[in-house]
Design brief:
heterodimer; A: alpha/beta; four-stranded antiparallel beta sheet; B: ABC transporter involved in vitamin B12 uptake, BtuC; 73% helix; membrane (chain B); Amino acid/amide ABC transporter membrane protein 2 (HAAT family) (chain B)
């Protein structure tokens, strides 16, 4: 399994000065799985995402994606290799239309040159039309087709999340990294999101999820990795994690307390 | 949904759909107007002001690529204008080149300097970038002032020849210069329109919207920022070359900081990130000193008041609205969507 995993992360470490944000984190994802990384606030989950996508340099360890080592490669290279992400706080292109957001996602797959577009060559027209049609198709599949002309900032919160995922899909990625997609959603919206992620899985996408919403994590994950203070503390099936004492101590205990407060 | 329906009744939507429905007719009317304008007024002063507006609209279009679309505010665009104007003028005066090759050389020179300015400023945004570009504008001015053997120092370049086509000199008096400037302005405008609706234009706007997200979409931010600098510099340089032949001489003070702020004011007043805005911005800010001559020195107060009031009540610029019309699909796309729809209906039936 180790060799043919879709994404295989081995002992990655990230230090910011004297602080070790992520230490010796390893995990693996097979094609078609939904895997979650959980951990308390500040555990280093987003740092892991930033290392995977090339925002941060990896100090130690290797990341093998689709048979290719991608640690410390440029973000563009990693996106082209087939990994794309969303953000914890939505980062859409707010002043642009929904369809334009998706077209930007398709940027790396759009190959006409600057001269092609300046002189409106046949190549430009053919490819632009193709990409627009694909964008509409993609929006249809995520249920946003009727809003394609709207500006991204005018979408309701749940739809913005969906659009962000659609934009990530448009890059042609096979592996989607979703950073807290359910953050700020009400129970009904997170229910919808869960169905949506399931439908992605059915379409053959592999999903790596960072999430705080335990009902989402426990329901859709095939496997879960737990990190705390930058260190891996457990991994296993959702049931195993839910009953793991170290995890409950580090993390789920906090959730119960929160639930009582509410 | 209710929101969308309400928008359809808005004045803006009505206005925009009127324009887009009658696009061809309006363009023909505009073209006819522009063609007949010099014949009907035949007033040199008036035509000079119109040509100046057109040149400044080009400056605006140039800076708009950088500031309006890519979100990089430059306070030194007079520098690029100066490079274009000086290079073209010197080529024409000293080397005896005709206008078009001189203008092209000016654009090339400005483009190269655009790369040079773009590279070190890649990591800078906002105020920091503005300060560097401010410095850039001053450096160009200093070079023009002190590199006497080439630029003739503070005396400047005089007797810049008018462009000639088939041996005919194009001047304001025979309306040739007017038509030349209008044609180049139209070419620039079409270039900008085409640029916006391409992956390049989208990438530039994405960088303005969210740089990190753009990087994560695989956009080569370095490349596109420098491209924005270069395109912006080239358009301003072309306009600078025209400006030089229009007024007939250039000296270091022709392109001082005031010109940079004027270009930026055109972009902001008209509406950043719009093309229509550049024409209105240039028209207002160039006409203003002319029509308010009776106010004497106080006209600069009026100028200031307009900008302050505008920033207070309409910070997006006079024409800075976001289009309410649906995203424009090409005819082929619309047809293919229709066939797909009928097929689907057929399958269901």
């Amino acid at each position: 399994m180790a060799d043919n995993a879709y994404l295989s992360v081995k002992g990655i470490t990230k230090r910011f000065g004297g602080i070790v944000a992520v230490e010796q984190v390893s995990f693996e994802i097979n094609k078609g799985e939904v895997v979650s990384i959980i951990g308390p606030n500040g555990a280093g989950k987003t740092t892991v995402f930033n290392m995977l996508t090339g925002v941060y340099q990896v100090d130690e360890g290797t990341i093998v994606f689709n048979g290719e080592e991608i640690q410390n490669k440029k973000p563009k290279h990693i996106v082209m290799a087939g990994m794309s992400r969303t953000f914890q706080n939505i980062r859409l292109f707010q002043d642009m239309r929904v369809i334009e957001n998706v077209l930007i996602g398709a940027h790396i797959k759009t190959s006409y040159s600057f001269l092609d577009s300046t002189f409106r060559t046949a190549r430009y027209r053919k490819e632009e039309d193709e990409k627009v049609l694909q964008a509409i198709e993609l929006l249809k599949s995520v249920g946003l087709e009727h809003r394609k002309d709207d500006y991204a900032s005018n979408l309701p919160y749940g739809d913005q999340r969906k659009l962000e995922i659609a934009r990530a899909i448009a890059t042609g990625a096979g592996l989607l990294l979703l950073d807290e997609p359910a953050a700020g959603m009400n129970p009904k919206e997170s229910e919808e999101l869960m169905l949506f992620i399931r439908s992605l899985k059915q379409k053959g996408y592999t999903v790596l999820l960072i999430e705080h919403d335990m009902s989402v994590v426990m329901n859709i994950s095939d496997r879960i990795y737990v990190i705390d203070h930058g260190k891996p503390i457990a991994h296993g099936l959702p049931v195993e994690i839910a009953n793991n004492e170290r995890v409950i101590e580090a993390y789920l205990g906090g959730v119960h307390k929160d639930a009582e407060d509410n | 949904m209710t929101n969308t329906r309400m928008e359809k009744h808005s004045f803006l939507y009505q206005f925009e759909s009127f324009i887009s429905k009658n696009q061809k007719l309006l363009l023909i009317l505009l073209a006819a107007f522009l063609c007949l304008l010099p014949k009907s007024v035949n007033n040199q002063y008036f035509l000079t002001v119109i040509v100046k507006m057109a040149v400044y609209a080009m400056f605006g279009l140039g800076l708009n690529i950088l500031t309006g679309y890519t979100g990089l505010v430059s306070l030194g665009h007079a520098g690029f204008v100066a490079i274009g104007a000086y290079t073209a003028s010197l080529c024409a005066v000293k080397l005896g080149l005709s206008f078009f090759p001189s203008m092209l050389l000016g654009m090339v020179a400005a483009g190269l300097v655009g790369i040079l300015l773009g590279l070190p400023t890649l990591r800078l945004t906002g105020t920091y970038l503005s300060i560097v570009t401010l410095g850039f504008g001053e450096i160009i001015k200093m070079i023009a002032m002190n590199w006497s053997p080439v630029t003739n120092g503070t005396l400047g370049v005089k007797n810049i020849p008018k462009p000639a086509v088939f041996g005919m000199k194009l001047t304001i008096a025979n309306h040739g210069l007017y038509y030349l400037v209008m044609i180049i302005l139209i070419v620039c405008t079409v270039f900008c329109l085409v640029l916006v609706k391409s992956k390049t234009g989208r990438a530039l706007q994405a960088i303005k919207g969210d740089e990190l997200a753009s990087v994560m979409m695989g956009i080569n931010v370095t490349y596109y920022k420098i491209l924005a600098f270069v395109l912006s510099a080239c358009i301003c340089a072309a306009a600078g070359a025209l400006y030089a032949t229009l007024i007939g001489y250039v000296d270091p003070n022709t392109f001082n900081f005031d010109v940079s702020t004027l270009i930026l004011s055109i972009v902001i007043l008209g509406g950043m990130g719009t093309i229509r805005g550049m024409f209105l911005g240039a028209a207002i800010l160039i006409a203003l000193p002319e029509v308010s001559r009776f106010l004497m020195v106080y006209r600069f107060v009026l100028y200031g008041v307009i900008l302050v009031v505008m920033m207070r009540f309409r910070p997006q610029g006079i024409l800075g609205w976001k289009s309410q019309l649906p995203y424009k699909l090409s005819r082929q796309v619309v047809e293919r969507l229709k066939t797909a729809e009928t097929e689907e209906a057929g399958d269901n039936g």
